[in-house]
Amino acid sequence: MACRFCRTKSVWKFTNQQQLCASCFARYFESKVKKIIRKYQMPISILKKKSLKAEIINIIIKDLPERKGRLSDENLNDISNKILENIIFSNMSSLKNYLPKFLPKNQPLYFLSDKEILLYARIKKIRGKINEPKKKLVDINNFIKKIEEKNPDIRHNIVDALLKSKNEK
Ligand SMILES: [Zn+2]
């Protein structure tokens, strides 16, 4: 049970079995947030919202040069819930026409799960918790959680399918 980089005790295991220690995990998390901001040219501006996720984003972007616009604190769990909600409750003829509104735009935590966010917060000693999903999303969230027990990558699979359908346009 050792970190793949420094061989110290791991705190995180990816589904491909690779493991990271606390400080390598924090570095991985921060670089993932910065990478997505760069790749999708997201705004870089402090969130005013009071939430654990907003606080984490603010800490990570504080040394980056400002870029106009507004960020959202939605993460992988929020986005995968919403995508599924839209698929279930709409009469859509085609994913690629309907779902582009869920592509990464201003969500630096787009590819990061609740679990990863909570672990990062624990390592950095940031207090707070992640709010439960809105009432209308609770059933969908529970449904995905059930699938997650056997398929831990399901939320990534959902957003990947969306990104893929965009590229097939
Ligand atoms: Zn390490």
Summary keywords:
mainly alpha, Rossmann fold, binds zinc ion, 7 helices, two-stranded antiparallel sheet, about 170 residues
What is the third-level CATH name, the topology? Answer: Rossmann fold
Strand arrangement, largest sheet?
1-2
CATH architecture: 3-Layer(aba) Sandwich
Write down the Rg: 17 Å
Total domain units: 1
Q: Quick check: average pLDDT? A: 93
| Main sheet characteristics | 2 strands, antiparallel
Beta strand count = 2
Helix content: 40-55%
Work out the strand percent: under 5%
How would you describe this structure to a colleague?
The chain has 169 residues and is mostly helical. The chain has one domain: Rossmann fold (3-Layer(aba) Sandwich), CATH 3.40.50.620. The protein contains seven helices and two strands. It has a two-stranded antiparallel sheet. Strand 1 and strand 2 form a beta hairpin. Helix 3 crosses helix 7 (154-167). The longest helix is centred in the N-terminal third of the chain and has 18 residues, at 22-39. The structure holds zinc ion. Zinc ion binds at residues 3, 5-6, 8, 20-21, 23-24. Zinc ion is lined by residues 3, 5-6, 8, 20-21, 23-24.
